């Protein structure tokens, strides 16, 4: 059985941002909406970010911070880079806002975010990824399932790199853990295994 | 007309979540789509909702869209020409 490696991660929870074990931002005063706007300048300027819902903002900013030093699109073909994400609340955060907007006139800008996999689309558009993608709904972060699924993609030689993880947003609650899986080690690496992922997830 | 354009700029920023812009960043006659402010097709739908919600003005003929939403100035002119008279 081939072994694969996590070559970087970004964790956002409890109004803290950690990239590869280094705490890079902390702000316990702001609302989650304002927090997402404040951490944006840590990444590269991307005006479309402002128009996204909170779930997409959280996924996009985590991917920006994770990939800012070394983006897989510099090494692999766009078709060989996959994105596989998961969460608990699907797009409920925006579904509820959209439902409220229907009391007056339904908002098209909210409607387009009423699916959880839109965050994958936003990440792929931003980074020009064109590989496999999937979004799973789980009760909680499920590294066993995610490792099996991503390993299968890498084994089939359909995929050279996979951005994977957990992007949960509902109201003020947020819990993001995004990581990059590749076949070879990099300067920062740990095993793509259930145990190692769970350890990182729980540590931050 | 001047006041209406100022109000429209604030409403556009609010409705389209353009938090990176200030009203003074949007020029009266600057193109709103593609170049200029860089809005997209979903934003166009949101602008139709904005006209209806705030001014009671409907866009009856979709082919007029590009002309109506070309700039803040063209939107203001459309509102002025199409808003219903205040009842006495």
Give a structural overview.
The complex is a heterodimer of chains A (204) and B (88). By secondary structure, chain A is of the alpha+beta class. Chain A has one domain: Peroxisomal Thiolase, Chain A, domain 1 (3-Layer(aba) Sandwich). Chain A has seven helices and eight strands, in the order E-E-E-H-H-E-H-H-H-E-H-E-E-E-H. In chain A, strand 2 and strand 3 form a beta hairpin. With 88 residues, chain B is mainly α. Chain B has a single domain, classed as ACP-like (Non-ribosomal Peptide Synthetase Peptidyl Carrier Protein, Chain A, Orthogonal Bundle). Chain B is built from four helices and no strands. In chain B, helix 1 crosses helix 4. The longest helix of chain B has 15 residues, at 41-55. The interface between A and B is medium-sized, with 11 and 14 residues.
Task: Describe this protein with a few key phrases.
A: 204 residues; alpha+beta; Peroxisomal Thiolase, Chain A, domain 1; eight-stranded mixed β-sheet; 7 helices; B: 88 residues; mainly alpha; Non-ribosomal Peptide Synthetase Peptidyl Carrier Protein, Chain A; 4 helices
């Amino acid at each position: 059985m081939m072994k694969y490696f996590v070559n970087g991660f970004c964790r956002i929870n409890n109004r803290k941002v950690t990239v590869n074990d280094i705490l890079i931002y902390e702000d316990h005063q702001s609302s989650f909406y304002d927090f997402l706007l404040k951490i944006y300048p840590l990444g590269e300027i991307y005006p479309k970010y402002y128009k996204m819902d909170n779930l997409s903002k959280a996924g996009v900013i985590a991917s920006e911070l994770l990939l800012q030093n070394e983006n897989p699109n510099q090494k692999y073909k766009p078709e060989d880079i996959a994105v596989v994400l998961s969460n608990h609340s699907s797009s409920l955060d925006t579904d509820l806002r959209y439902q409220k907007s229907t009391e007056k006139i339904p908002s098209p800008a909210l409607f387009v975010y009423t699916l959880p996999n839109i965050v994958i689309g936003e990440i792929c558009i931003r980074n020009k990824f064109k590989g496999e993608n999937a979004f799973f709904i789980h009760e909680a972060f499920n590294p066993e399932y995610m490792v099996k699924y991503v390993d299968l993609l890498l084994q089939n030689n359909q995929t050279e790199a996979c951005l994977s993880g957990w992007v949960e947003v509902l109201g003020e609650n947020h819990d993001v853990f995004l990581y990059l899986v590749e076949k070879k080690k990099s300067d920062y690496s740990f095993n793509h295994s259930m145990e190692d992922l769970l350890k990182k997830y729980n540590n931050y | 007309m001047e006041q209406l354009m100022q109000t429209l700029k604030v409403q556009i920023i609010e409705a389209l979540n353009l938090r990176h812009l200030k009203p003074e960043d949007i020029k009266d006659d600057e193109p709103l789509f593609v170049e200029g402010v860089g809005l997209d097709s979903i934003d166009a739908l949101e602008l139709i909702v904005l006209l209806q919600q705030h001014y009671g003005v409907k866009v009856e003929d979709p082919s007029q869209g590009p002309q109506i939403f070309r700039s803040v100035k063209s939107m203001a002119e459309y509102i002025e020409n199409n808003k219903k008279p205040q009842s006495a």
